[in-house]
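To illustrate this point, what follows is a protein record of this kind.

___
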Amino acid sequence: MKVSDRIAGLTGGGPDGWDLYRKARRMIAEGVSVTELTIGEHDVRTDPSILEAMRASAAGGHTGYAALPGTDALRTAVAARIEARTGVPTSRRNVVITPGGQAALFAAHVVACDPGDRALFIDPYYATYPGTIRAAGAIAVTVAAEAERDFRPDPAAIEAALPARSILVNSPNNPTGVVYDRATLDGIGEVARAHDLWIVSDEVYDTQVWSGAHLSPRALPGLAERTLVVGSLSKSHAMTGSRLGWLAGPEEAIAHAINLTTHTTYGVPGFVQDAGLFALARGEALETAIAAPFRRRHALAMRVLSSAGVRVVPSTASMYVMADIRPTGLSGEAFADRLLDTHAIAVMPGESFGRAAAGHLRIALTVADDRLDAALTTLANFHNTLKRQAA
């Protein structure tokens, strides 16, 4: 039997961007000691107090079907967090709890787009974006944010990609670590208002900003009614495996998203939601503690790579840095493959995140400082050797 064109075409007929990651995992399974700087997985796991709250909730009986939109208490807590960060009045009716940010991304595009609508997203992009848009039945259309602009999108390029029904933005950005400034977001907002676009704003890295401040499009004049915000406890609270996220937006849109959960995920386990509520109640002190290693390692990476002559994309956020290895004459894919084979260091090639990031590497800052320092030094020396050979 033939499967649907939608599912067969989920990755657009090409690779899904995860080939090197899978290769590194195969090497590890075969006993090779690989320094893995690929995915955004915390090296310090979920705080024991959060796990205890989860255990206590499950032991107390919160193991049946959970409230589909999310528990009132958790939705209220998420709404309060969003209102405090954006200044936009927000209630639980503006929030639906989802199984991680990925499910929220899918729900946002189902809400925003009809089948066949064009949905824009910025290149470089998180690897699941195009497949998520296609899964929602929309047509995935990239808008390049060029390296020469430090990967900040040009509103004129967004306008040139129209017509469309939505634009997906991600700030703080994965993979680049760039935070969009007010001028960039104002330009995106002007295009959205002029052409009646939904803005889907992926803000899962909003607690990992090392200088300056994160600004949500939802907080800008006239954008709250057309912005759907994707959030998650994965990065802010080291709860990646708990799969606890949310979608926030206009009340009518969220009501439809709640209806979608009835027909897809059927909610998030109640004991996981209770653990999330406990985590949020710990306040900014816990979030700051979880972010602290990445703040420190970001500074370390910028120092080690820059001092060795490797250009690093100017960034002020996230658990990643992006290095420009074009002077070696290799693609990001070729460089990353040779680095893994030669030195057992695994990084993600820029091509995994779109064409605009070709010739770059995304380096996850997810191992202990001393090990990271050694890996970055090896990477820089390898880069410089290849650069001399290319010259």
